[in-house]
Predict the structure of Purine nucleoside permease.
Amino acid sequence: MQICAKTLWATSAIMVGLAGGASADPVKVKVFIGAMFEIGENSGDRAGEYQHWYERYWQDAVPREIPGAIAPVHCNDDGVCGSVLGMGKVNAAASMQAILLNPDYDFSNAYYLITGVAGTPPSRGTIGDVVWANWLIDYDLGHRWAPEEGEPGEPVFIPRKGYEEYRVHELNPDLVAWGVELSSDVALTDSDEAQTYRMRYPDAAAQAAPSVKVGTHMTGDTFFHGPGLSAEAQYIAKLYGADDYLVTEMEDNAIAQVINRLYGTDRIAAIRGSVNFDQGNPNETTLQHLDPAPGETAGGFAETVQNIALVGAPLVDRIVTGWEAWKDGVPAH
C-alpha cells in the first residue's frame, strides 16, 4: 500500500501536536506582538523590547513553552499574545514559524505587530523616533562587491534574481493609516542625554524632538554603519520602488515572509524606535562611531523602548475593543 508524503506529514503533525499537549480549544489570537530581545526579566528591571508590552498585557499570563521558539508565548483573556522572537532573521523567523504552526493557537483572524529598536539616518530621523513601516525590505538579497572593483562613485549592489517575492513587502496602507492616526497624539518621552547627543549632528531631522514617522524598514543581518552604506540602503529602497529608508533593523522582512506564507501580509504592522544613528557625526569616523569612548554613546534607549509601546498600544487596543469590526479584515480608513 502506498501512502503519499502529504498524508504522512499531516499524520506526523497531528501526533506531534498530541504529544505536545495541544489544547482542545486553541487560543484565538486577535493580536500577536513580537519583540526581538529582552535584557533581563520581563518585569521590574531595565526594560528591553518586550518588558513594556509584558507589563501592559501579560502580568498575570501563564508562559507557554513552544517547541522551536526561542522564548515562551504569553496571552491574556482578550486574545492579545506575544513573545520574544530572537535577534536576526534566522532566529526571529524560526520562532515565528514555530508559534504560527503550534496547534495550541488559532491565528486565522490574527493581526501582527512587529516591534523593536533600530537605527536611523540623521538626515531623516532622530533618537526616540518611532517609525511605522509602510515597506519592509531585505538588505541582503543581492550581489555586492568592493567599491574599488566597480565604477568610481557607483552603487556596489544589484538585486539577485529569484528573490522578487521575498525581498520586498508593502504593508496594508489602511492598517498603516490606522496606526499613524491612533498614535498621532501620543506624547513621546525624551531624555537630556539624547537631546545633548543629537546636537553633535548638523541635520535638522537629527536635532529635532522625537516624533512618529512612516517609512521603509531595512532588514539586514549586517549591522551596517557609515554614510556610504546608509546611502546604499536608500538606493535599495528606491530601486525597489519603496518610500524613504528611515530605519535599519534585523528581523522585520523575515518575520513578514513567514506570516505571508500562511496568512498573507494584510494584517501585519511594524514599528521601530530609533536608538542610534546609522553613521557618525562629521567629527568622527565610522569606526569611532562603532566603538565610542565611555560616556560617548547615544542616550535615550530607555525612553525609546517606552515610546514604542506608547505608539503601538492604541492600535492593539482598538483592534481588540472593536473586534467585531476588525475580525474579518482591516476597516476602511
